Amino acid sequence: MFDQYVGVSPKSDLILLQMLGAKLSQRSYLHINSTRAGGGVAEILQRMIPILGELGIDARWEVIEGDSKFFDITKKIHNALQGNAEIITDEMWQYHLKINGQNAEKINLEADAVIIHDPQPAPLIEFKKTGLWMWRCHIDLSNPQIGVWDYISQYCEKYDAAIFSVAKFARAMTIDQYIAPPSIDPISEKNRDLTEEEMNETLKKFQIPTDRPIILQVSRFDRFKDPIGVIAAYRIVKKYNDCILILAGSPATDDPEGEAVLKEVKEFAAGDPDIYILLLPPFSDRDINVLQRIATVILQKSLREGFGLTVSESMWKGKPVIGGAVGGIPLQIVHGITGFLVHSVEGAAFRVRQLLNNPDMAKKMGEGAREHVRKNFLITRQIRDYLSIWYFMENKGKSILEL
Amino acid sequence: MEKIIEPFEFRQCISILKSTGRKAKNLRQLRDVMAVASDECIFHHTYQYFLKGHILEYTNDFAHWAGESLEERALSEHLSNIDPYDFKDINDLRNKLLDVIDDHLERFPEPREAMPSDEFYFNETVTLIFPVGIKAKNLAEFLMAIKYIDTGSIYYHFYEARIRLGSGIDDFSRWIEDAFGKKELVERIRAIDPFMHNLEGIKEHIADAVEEEVRRDMEVIDRCLTSM
Predict the structure, then answer these.
(1) Which residues in chain A have Cβ-Cβ distances shorter than 8 Å to B152?
(2) Does the beta carbon of B56 lie under 8 angstroms from any beta carbon of chain A?
């Protein structure tokens, strides 16, 4: 598997991975999260564990189990940490700890290094046996419900270090806080190169014409992704340039507002035959890959965002991306070089027109975008970061290490 | 006896960001945190600015934030004009930055606020240095290597070396001077302004200078061959 990244990922990352693998050879490395499938964390762990094995590290991935009551509580905790109003009672906190205790009895927690992903399994620290423990927080903690953060941070502060995706997602803590942005896998179904046959299959399935420029946004039908704003921007563009718009996304089953947003989007599209609203079922990775490859310009016009990895996915296909300047998007889009950052519907429309009318600029920007992702947002860089953090924690107090 | 030439070993560094958890939303808060921030933090926001593939408008993160987020254009120009390599000690650099900010605050005592989530986030880094497995024994090999080397290696040998060696000199020109004594080429490399190019630009300038030297060397007629 490691060999598949040769010639794709930066050579220096691959060299460093091998060197760190040699330093940490035969050491045990345990990752624990709360779901085996679905979601970005599980997606990356599925690919990461075998690569770590190839590097000589004894890597293991365990998943905590819980009933629906447990996951209802953890969803509320998750939402509250992202700033939503939620009430977590003492009884709920106790249940959170109790289920983690039950998992601690079932899972072998002994390892040289342990990474606990997100708040769901955070209380496992209470059952720590050996090794260095890291709390990996994938969510934005910059504006939490402070009472909920105060409670969960009692656990988090007991770890040896925390890892966040973006510096501005972190909070002041007494432990070391490392930053490791998430990543995409260039050889996964969603990102690998496709044959013409595979491309045509999807185009035929959705009856998408390719005789005009295509504007695309791939995202859940969620107000924070501003699908209405995307249609409004398309309408401005349409006055000057003939084009089609594709809004593709999975229905948000865990979001009660999802249905309402989809209805609003359909109403706002008002039967425009050049607007394609595609409801993709889960595991539509190849279709998303095709859509990103056929698009002329890709939008991620979010009003609020986590890291927004769909931006990197699009950039990896050599496309200029226009993104809302929120969450992790500004980290991926270097304004004017690998895409454009916008703050309004009008701004988005203007940048789309600019790219449609300057294919050379769009091409150059797309090439810059792909290279930016290659250097910064591929899975090999993320594994490199995790192993580097572990290595630095073993050499605590040093800020420069030579291999 | 012929001089033994030490090959040039290309190395590279990568840095992992660490959050200090501190942030500033206006200039007064920025200066207050800067005054007490760790040396590593000041180092990261100044010297390591070049590691990011910088925008040529600015030369450090403080100037960048003042210009882009606070829209304090004059201040950002003053901060950008500070050359970190002029200072032997990180605290001297810190004090110079603070002087410039204090001077601005004296003239404009009510600083504007950055938009939410556009605050200045104080970070540090930890750095790993490692060999990339490429060695050059002569200028021709060096030329091939520098053309294809990762820009992280350019950062290590061109920028980081100035602090490591303490004399404002990069590794490339030092090796060329020690190994071949090629004064003209050495001067050309040392004349590349580190603030006016991104890492790709530095790489191209060095490759151009070395290529010209290699071409010139190829033109030299060895008298042993012609017996003249």
Answers:
(1) 12
(2) no
The predicted-structure confidence for A84-141, as pLDDT tens digits, reads as follows: 899 999 999 999 999 999 999 999 999 999 999 999 999 999 999 999 999 999 988 9
Distance from CA of A172 to the nearest CA of B (A): 4
Cβ-proximal residues to A128 (8 Å cutoff; 6+ apart), any chain: A109, A114, A158
Q: Tell me, what's the pLDDT at B218?
A: 86
Could B152 and A167 be called an inter-chain contact, meaning their C-beta atoms sit closer than 8 Å? no
Q: What is the ipTM of this complex?
A: 0.88
A vs B, Cβ pairs < 8 A, gives: 83
> Are the C-beta atoms of residues A257 and A222 closer than 8 Å to each other?
yes
The three-state secondary structure class of B122 is: strand
pLDDT tens-digit readout, A18-52? 999 999 999 999 999 998 876 778 888 999 999 99
pTM confidence score: 0.92
Measured distance CA(A280)–CA(A282) in Å, rounded = 7
* Interface residue A355 vs chain B (CB under 8 A): no
Query: Would an 8 Å CB–CB cutoff place A141 in contact with chain B?
Result: no
A139 in Cβ contact with A118 (< 8 Å): yes
Q: Among all residues of chain A, which has the CA nearest to that of B17? A: A179
Q: How is residue B113 written in tokens? A: 């606020």
Q: Which of A335, A351, A252 is nearest to A298 (CA)?
A: A351
**Are B16 and A392 an interchain contact pair (Cβ–Cβ within 8 Å)?**
yes
* Closest residue by Cα to residue A246 from A182, A303, A202: A202
Which residue of B lies nearest to A376 if distances are taken between CA atoms? B52
CA distances from B165 to A387, B84, B96, B157 (A): 29, 14, 22, 10
Total Cβ atoms within 10 A of residue A2: 18
Would an 8 Å CB–CB cutoff place B125 in contact with chain A?
yes
3 state DSSP class of A31? strand
Give CA–CA dist A186/A379, Å, rounded: 8
Interface of B with A in 129-158 (CB under 8 A): 129-133, 150, 152-153
Burial of A198: CB neighbours in 10 Å, binned 0-12, 13-18, 19+: middle
Render pLDDT for B206-217 as a digit per residue (tens, 0 to 9).
Answer: 999 999 999 998
- The predicted pLDDT at position A61 comes to 97
Nearest to B21 among A10, A173, A401 (CB): A173
Structure-block tokens of residue A92: 């709920």
- Identity of residue B192: I
Q: What is the rounded distance in angstroms from the CA atom of residue A238 to the CA atom of residue B202? A: 43
